[in-house]
Amino acid sequence: MKLKEKEIDGFLSNPDDGINLFLFYGQDYGLSAERLRDLSKILDVNVDDPFSSSNLKLEDIENNPSKLLEEALTHSFLGGQRLVIFKIYNSRISSNLVNSINNLINHLPIKNTKILILAHDLPSYSPILKPIFACNYAVSIASYNKPEYKIKSDIKSFLTDKSIEVSEDLLTILSSHLGDDQLNSINQLENLISYIYPRTIIISEDIEKSFHDTSKVEVENVVFSLISGDSINTIKNIDKIFSAGIPPLLIIKSTLLWFYKIRIACEAINSGKSLDDAISVASPNIFWKTKPKFKNGIKVWASKNIDLIIDRLLFLEKRIKDFPKIDTTLVSFSLFGLTNLVKKND
């Protein structure tokens, strides 16, 4: 089954219980990833519990084409619903993968099992699409790049939900700065909101400074010294950035953004992508001067627990929002502590 664009949001908010297989694909990888996360929350399955969920890599299927079906047929240890998440980063689909998905479809429906497939860079002629279109127990959800009017509408809706005001003129300027990738756009808007905090009205100077201010370079210096575990430069860069009056919340948001990108890149590498291709997946418009730092960050964190750092950053972000006048010394101490975790987090 193939959903039309106007049907997607309604379907995902109340998915048909008879559907086993959900394929998310299309040019807007960020939107596909967001939709998959939203659906996994609605299905109310703990994705971190190995007894109720499973995460598969492309190499798992290439080495064992029956692995996808085996995971789908596995019952939850405590009963109830089971979730299987499978991410595909290659545009070239092998015969093993085609056979694996066809074999799965031939065994549908499977009680108490949901299979979520996230496919990046999947062409419209891909051989895995036709059998999913034809299956009554499977649904395909395409995420395509949006026209300008839709981008503006989404920006306005996002800001309204955050109780942030912006004029129509500035909305046009904002849409010109943002791309049509949902994930990147949300990250940029989050940075802008952090930049103006605690104000709730965006002015033209905010947009200019948030997107073009050289302070972004200073923020990235903090972020990548932290990511690389360089304690000495982290201290120096933090002192410099606070002396310049840059809000702590902006630093935390930027650090979170880059750790999210590193996690996406690591997932792509684990699914068979090269390092450069993984960078293109995680940050398609990366600045050439930033790319070597990002590449090093991926290498440093390839075998480490990224989610541990993300959880701590999210907690720190919440603390800053709850106590906006929190001492920058405490924020500095927290960031320094995260830097030291790099060497300890093996």
CATH class categorisation of the largest domain: Mainly Alpha
- What integer is the average pLDDT? 83
Strand order across the biggest sheet? 2-3-4-1-5
Strand content: 5-15%
Write down the overall geometry: globular
User: Which consecutive residue ranges, at least 5 long each, have pLDDT under 50?
Assistant: none
Helix and strand pattern: HEHEHHEHEHEHHHHHHHHHHH
What structural category do the secondary elements indicate? alpha/beta
Rg from alpha-carbon coordinates: 21 Å
Q: Helix content range of the residues, please? A: 55-70%
Q: What is the first-to-last residue Cα distance?
A: 44 Å
CATH topology term of the largest domain: Zinc Finger, Delta Prime, domain 3
Task: Give a quick account of the main beta sheet: strands, pairing sense, barrel closure.
Answer: 5 strands, parallel
Counted up, domains total 2
Question: Which architecture of the largest domain would the CATH scheme give at its second level?
Answer: Up-down Bundle
**Count of discrete alpha- or pi-helical segments spanning 4 or more residues:** 17
Number of DSSP strand runs: 5
